């Protein structure tokens, strides 16, 4: 492809035709892909977008690392439509998570974002032999040719409304039926419409799958258990340094653990009990300036983070520096 605009539209065409399709870029490239992402939302076409985050805005620091695109991935695109956001912590996780992203994209007919970063993507990793049996080969949500042939001729509706909001996809060229798809608002058949009633019904349909998607996403991992007084919240490639910093603090008899998010959005509402939140101090650790995970948890689940630690100079955290920052935040929270 000659640029990111053509890349995502070519990938959407391939997905529309029936293959699993994915594009990879950094934040600046994803900015160019946004109109295509909206097209995927409107046409309910599966697509996986890998964003290898680095500092922006604009060119920023193109050879350095950052975690500043989380809220961009959650909100990019005009209009409202479902999407999922995942973030691997290691190269091994990234291998399996790409497959997971394709599975979710096809099952729910949505864009799925996979957020890496320069630190994760440019690091060397030693991993055990990869377990190919963990990969999901199943293709979800496609109307098989035999099922299409069993229907009355030309009765297929690409956007037929139903309880889940997900209509089985008919691939172009399948006999006995006709496929209409449109980037304008459309009827159940796929024809352009400006009907207020149909518009509302189609928006509701596209959003209805979020609740099912929410329940399928994996919750965060909690170490060492759910009975600590303080937890560090993290996501993506910060896991390794967070693990090391937490172990340094636990060696000082500080009652602390960590909570790490991999399948981030849509945010599950049942993450923590009210009792847990009342009795626990939460400190977010993120490679950005504004604490984007902390902000997302507050917006989507009403979870208040007590303190935020951010690094946004283009460099990854180090364990010793992070441990010291956590000590300082702990002192501020406890008044000294």
From TrEMBL:
<dbReference type="GO" id="GO:0016491">
    <property type="term" value="F:oxidoreductase activity"/>
</dbReference>
<protein>
    <submittedName>
        <fullName>2-oxoacid:acceptor oxidoreductase subunit alpha</fullName>
    </submittedName>
</protein>
<dbReference type="GO" id="GO:0006979">
    <property type="term" value="P:response to oxidative stress"/>
</dbReference>
<dbReference type="InterPro" id="IPR002880">
    <property type="entry name" value="Pyrv_Fd/Flavodoxin_OxRdtase_N"/>
</dbReference>
<dbReference type="InterPro" id="IPR029061">
    <property type="entry name" value="THDP-binding"/>
</dbReference>
<keyword id="KW-0560">Oxidoreductase</keyword>
<feature type="domain" description="Pyruvate flavodoxin/ferredoxin oxidoreductase pyrimidine binding">
    <location>
        <begin position="1"/>
        <end position="204"/>
    </location>
</feature>
<dbReference type="Pfam" id="PF01855">
    <property type="entry name" value="POR_N"/>
</dbReference>
<dbReference type="InterPro" id="IPR009014">
    <property type="entry name" value="Transketo_C/PFOR_II"/>
</dbReference>
<dbReference type="InterPro" id="IPR050722">
    <property type="entry name" value="Pyruvate:ferred/Flavod_OxRd"/>
</dbReference>
